[in-house]
Specification:
The complex is a heterodimer of chains A (338) and B (208). Chain A has 14 helices and four strands. Chain A is mainly α. The termini of chain A are far apart. The chains are: A mainly alpha (338), B mainly alpha (208).
């Protein structure tokens, strides 16, 4: 019949039965989504979607009778999509924090000088680290049921329960676990993580269960730390997450305790962490998973443009008065000229 | 039978070239939707709680009904191609009308869904005014929701325009067993629109 159609097309009957199959598969995904299977839900949904897509491509779009070139062309797009996804993920999920500079940031970051004392900032930081480093085994909320857990003997610890801990669940004991790992299990040593990250992780995972007894002097002696000395863990370059830095910028009130009165002082406290002491830039800054290397300030920028930038979406600093903004903008302009 | 353009050796070669052009076009489509899907994947991993809470505000039932509409429309589209190849003018036209009707039903359901979202203030970024959802990243979910489903809806609209065009030519007997390249290629496009929805539906409505 049609000599130049894409090969023998489907009979009416097979079109209808394939349609029926697709509808059944739809019903399956919808039903499965109402059953809580944890991470498995995602994989079931993905698997069914791939099956449906294959049916559509193979039969309806007739890829089974098509030339191999066309199949290759189409599949290449999927290959590139995968590369795109993998590279973007690697980029987004492995990014640094802001090094702390300026009195304002230092005051907050100094909590890490005694990181064994639990603070909300440390717990928040621990939570972020946890999602990246630990959740695949210990589960999103620490119940020991991450996607990689099924294959592990012994299974990962359930942080929400107080029993079954080999080293114990005081902060110092978890710190030790992270330093040495647990021999004979998948729990490796995390000694390569900065110490303050390890303390942050310890505080976070302990917060997932009931409050343990306080660490005693002996507990600290075991890990060789003197809890009375400041910074007896070595923190060379205090860092806070960019999100915290941005949040801090917003809460900084004008005339606050750290404000020294001069635009230079203001700049040192609020802006130097990200733009450098002299506005020279070149500092890696990430926000909401997006990141940039700050540039030296542009000499051509007008006062209004600088103020708009400080108050706009890039910084969202809304607490400075008009005079302070003007003074800062002048300072930035001068810095740009130098 | 229609004659092929002079720069093609045969009608067969002409058809193959048109079809390959269509596949290349679909590749660009994959990459366009792909950008949005990758964005969705990344942000979903960055803010799992917010995305999980936000996705609960989508109506699974409406999404499922729309999936049924689109899959059925793919079936009627495939039937339209089969009937056209068999030279059955009336059956082919009816299948195309069926496809159009299902597409229109899809748009109606989308209208209901979107108006609920507008009413509840579940809107992208700065337009978000819902007070129940407090997580700061929830508006991001709705930005992605509207961008992906909106782009998909645009494809449905364009597809409907193409279907009307094909329907006219099928009814007039221009497209028939001898020559039906446009029907087949519009069919490809339509199945692709279905394909995108096959992924959007579970990703947005079901797993969240």
């Amino acid at each position: 019949m049609a000599s130049h159609s894409s090969g023998p097309h489907l009979s009416v009957r097979s079109v209808l039965s394939l349609g029926g199959l697709l509808l059944v598969l739809t019903l399956v995904t919808v039903l499965v989504s109402f059953v809580d299977l944890g991470k498995l839900n995602f994989f079931v949904a993905a698997l069914v979607a791939i099956c449906k897509a294959t049916i559509v491509l193979y039969f309806f779009m007739n890829l089974r009778h098509d030339s191999r070139d066309n199949a290759v062309i189409f599949l290449t797009s999927l290959v590139f999509l995968t590369i795109f996804f993998v590279l973007t993920s690697v980029d987004v999920f492995f990014r640094g924090d802001v090094k702390v500079k300026g009195a304002f940031f230092q005051a907050v970051a100094s909590v890490t000088k005694k990181p064994w004392i639990k603070t909300p900032e440390l717990v928040a930081h621990g939570k972020e680290q946890y999602a990246i480093q630990c959740a695949m085994c210990h589960g999103a909320v620490g119940a020991g049921n991450g996607p990689a857990a099924a294959a592990l003997v012994p299974p990962p610890r359930d942080f929400t329960k107080p029993d079954g801990w080999k080293n114990g669940r005081k902060a110092t004991m978890v710190f030790k676990t992270l330093k040495d790992g647990l021999a004979g299990s998948a729990m490796a040593s995390y000694a390569t993580l900065p110490e303050d990250d390890r303390w942050a992780l310890a505080h976070y995972i302990i917060s997932l269960g009931s409050e343990p007894p306080a660490d005693t002097a002996e507990d600290f002696a075991v890990i060789g730390i003197d809890p009375n000395k400041e910074g007896s863990t070595v923190i060379k370059e205090p860092k806070i997450t960019i999100r915290q830095a941005m949040a801090l910028l917003q809460t900084s009130s004008s005339g606050g305790r750290l404000y020294t009165g001069s635009a230079e002082g203001q700049y040192g406290q609020l802006c130097a962490s990200c733009h450098g002491d002299k506005g020279q830039g070149g500092i890696k800054v990430g926000q909401y998973g997006l990141y940039a290397v700050t540039k030296p300030f542009d000499r051509a920028m007008t006062e209004d443009a600088i103020i708009a930038s400080i108050r706009g979406t890039a910084h969202r600093v809304t607490t400075l008065s008009q005079e302070e903004l003007t003074a800062l903008a002048r300072f930035v302009q001068n810095a740009a000229k130098r | 039978m229609r004659h092929h353009a002079h720069h093609f050796a045969s009608a067969e070669a002409e058809f193959e070239a048109s079809k390959q052009g269509m596949w290349v076009f679909l590749v660009t489509e994959v990459l366009m939707f792909g950008g949005l899907l990758v964005g969705y994947g990344i942000f979903r991993n960055l803010y799992p709680e917010a995305f999980h809470e936000a996705h609960k505000h989508l109506a699974v039932s409406l999404g499922a009904i729309n999936t049924v509409f689109l899959i059925s429309s793919s079936v009627t589209m495939a039937l339209a191609v089969t009937y056209t190849q068999m030279g059955k003018r009336v059956a082919a036209s009816c299948s195309l009308i069926g496809t159009l009707t299902l597409a229109f039903s899809f748009l109606c359901v989308k209208y209901v869904e979107y108006s609920h979202k507008f009413h509840d203030g579940l809107l992208p970024a700065g337009y978000f005014t819902n007070t129940e959802l407090k997580l700061p990243e929830a508006p991001l979910f709705f930005s992605l929701y509207f961008m992906t489903t909106g782009l998909h809806m645009l494809h449905v609209l364009i597809g409907m325009g193409l279907l009307i065009w094909i329907l006219r030519r099928t009814w007039s007997g221009e497209l028939s067993s001898g020559y039906c390249t446009p029907t087949e290629l519009v069919g490809f496009y339509w199945h692709f629109v279905d394909l995108v929805w096959i992924f959007l539906f579970p990703l947005l409505y079901l797993v969240g």
